[in-house]
Amino acid sequence: MTETIAAIRLNTVGQLMEHGYAARLDCAPCGRGADVDLDSLCRQLGAQFPLVEIRKHATCPHCGGAVTLAMRLAKAGPKPAGHPMAIRIKPTSPRR
Length: 96
Known about the structure:
The chain has helices at 13-18, 38-45, 51-57, and strands at residues 21-27, 33-35, 58-59, 67-73, 88-89. The protein is α+β, with helices and mostly antiparallel strands. Strand 1 (21-27) and strand 2 (33-35) form a beta hairpin.
């Protein structure tokens, strides 16, 4: 008999950390990428920061290109190799 595992929704930075996931940002234009320091990201943006907003607001610090976000179980194995990349958050325009 197969055990059923309940599905979970991962919508925020805090939920990624809570459920043992790691995140990676990759830049298609220049090919660079790196794992995200979720602890620092959580301190900078808050645990409730939506994951969809990371992709909307993050750019590659090397070329300014758009980045993609990938998630994996942190305990699933070694971190993928990549170039050092810090998240650069685009400034948001003030609401009127």
